[in-house]
Amino acid sequence: MKTFGFAGWSGSGKTTLIEQVLPHLTTKGLRVSLIKHTHHDFELDQPGKDSWRHRQAGAHEVLLAGGQRWALLHELRDQPSPSLTDLLARLSPCDLVLVEGFKREPIPKLEVHRPALGKAMLHPDDPDIVAIACDQWIDAPLPRLDLNRADEIAQFILDWIQT
Length: 163
Description:
alpha/beta; Rossmann fold; two-stranded antiparallel sheet; 8 strands; 24% helix; globular; Molybdopterin-guanine dinucleotide biosynthesis protein B; MobB_dom; P-loop_NTPase; MGD_biosynthesis_adapter
């Protein structure tokens, strides 16, 4: 499976951009999956529900299955967080995996940058960043893409993974 990442500071618009790029990729016939890294604790399950109670009781994994989707909840307990490689191995086969976060992983990445945030650019310290999506013109040694043109960004990704 090919991977392509989106890296940027919090508030730069990574999630929104991915949300806009995905339809352009899927209409080209690609089966696309996504892995998102978060530094925050999160809860997919609802306290009090049977599956939540099973996890609280000590279940290592709980798989929820319904007519429209299924989800596997895996409790790390005292185990370290899995690597991107470990997570990729758990996905079903697809054409492309978009990765949000994991900005230090050695995969090709698009830096999502908004100068108004006042944060430093990531690409000078990350040789895996292959282009920059920005909401205004910046001077950079990499291809620059308009953050507001999801169609052009999707095409860049398609071209990149086909090389």
